[in-house]
Amino acid sequence: MANPFHIAFPVDDLAVARTFYGTVLGCPEGRSTDTWIDFDLYGHQIVTHLIPDACHATEGKGKGVVDGHNVPIPHFGVVLDMDDWKALAERVRANGVTFGMEPTIRFAGLPGEQATMFFCDPAGNALEFKAFANMHLLFAKQ
Q: Which Gene3D superfamilies match (predicted)?
């Protein structure tokens, strides 16, 4: 990976975040203190910060419309290969996570055709994971 991104976001319980990101999503844990934890999300550095007052940031916030579906704004995630995406969808479902958007295919038959799913972490941060059958079409115009 050429340039991994970094994002830091609030959670209201580090132990719950550790279980969700470490066990449910399968992210290896990096450095941590009693107020934050680094995780490796498919090669990208995500950092959960204990900030109880800022949690549930996406609840009641904006929704964007994409291919006829309402999606939470803000959200973040990773574009995966199709096998990793399917495995993550199965792992998330097996752990009882509620999907905001069930795993589905958007833009069917178009250059941007993609598998996608949305769900929130226990602190209310919205996540989207995508996959393209042809990764070269990631930025293809319609």
A: 2,3-Dihydroxybiphenyl 1,2-Dioxygenase, domain 1
Give the pTM: 0.89
Provide the pairing of β-strand 99-106 with 114-120.
antiparallel
Q: In this predicted structure, what is the pLDDT of residue 1?
A: 60
C-alpha to C-alpha distance for 13 and 35, rounded to whole angstroms: 9
| Domains and their CATH numbers in the chain | 6-52 (3.10.180.10), 62-137 (3.10.180.10)
Using alpha carbons, select from 85, 71, 82, 84 the residue that is nearest to residue 120.
71
Tell me 28's DSSP state.
P
Q: pLDDT (tens digit, 9 = 90+) per residue, 46-99?
A: 999 999 887 665 555 677 877 777 888 899 999 999 999 999 999 999 999 999
d(CA 48, CA 67): 31
Q: Which residues neighbour 73 within 8 Å (Cβ) at sequence distance 6 or greater? A: 58, 61, 62, 63, 64, 126
